[in-house]
Amino acid sequence: MTQNDRRFMSMALTLARRGLGNVWPNPAVGCVIVNKGRVVGRGWTQPGGRPHAEVRALAQAGEAARGATAYVTLEPCAHYGKTPPCAMALREAGVSRVVSAMEDPDPRVSGGGHAMLRDAGIDVETGLMEAEARDLQAGFLSRVTRARPWLALKLASSFDGRIATSTGESQWITGPQSRALVHAMRAEFDAVMVGGGTARADDPLLTVRSFTPLRQPLRIVASAGLDLPRKRLAGSLDVAPLWLIHGAEAPDEAKDYWREAGAELIEVAETSGGGLDPLALMEALAGFGLTRVFCEGGGKFAASLINAGLVDELIGFTAGMMLGADSRAGVGDMGLSALASAPRYKLVESRPIGDDLLHRWRRQSHA
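Structure tokens predicted for Riboflavin biosynthesis protein RibD:
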């Protein structure tokens, strides 16, 4: 494949990113249609998952799609859902060549889209910029192949890893630029999640507020007993949906209150030591179609997710201040007695954000 092929696929990947946080349970796909070296159609998956990227790009291209090359960041779908297969749409539009970044592992597709195109005499090439496509599709791939969403844990802390003073004061450790970037990050995830401890301590809204997103992320609070503050969360259900994850013993009064308020209640199993089972929680979210979850603590909840091997990415915003050992740690007790037992993450990005440092890490064991 040529440098031009790579250039057009890079364009398709940039378009695909626009769908992050807006298209679950579908993947965020980008498509660019090129005829005689000229871009004649562009598309990306639309909010709610429809229309698909290929359909949008073909509509823009019109008759110029005949004999053209389509660059798609994921194998075109081959199954009938709410709409006909995208592979069929490409075939009927007269596209002569399709370049896709990767095969779709969804069993409903899994090579079927490429086969449908080849059977129609269309030249199909795969694997261009596959690593970049897999990175962008990490959430969708995780839901399909691991039956759980991709999970990023964000921590805003002092240099010594503290998220609040000994009295609980935490606003603000990091600066306004970091807080604005967190809101932008929230918008690229299907859901923003916290544990019950953080909800009780901060009574957070968990919405995107530094700008108006295409779609507010779903808000999730995990609290076995549903002992949660009710004013801000219940009073903002017209702004963004709210899912509450609870255990079997949550009081009926609390369940009735939240259902009446308009929240979605999801019961999951608890561990033998008490508290919600983190794997059962994540599998339940995947069952509802979530692909990418942005967790913002708190410490005990974060420790349970890390210990269960469920945190795929760490996102740190570190301020140049010290709060000392008597202040509150960003992650709760993990019960580690040996360094060899500690989960390891690999640094993938670091850069200054105002007076703070942003650093992102990926779990080393993640393929």
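The chain has twelve helices and 16 strands.
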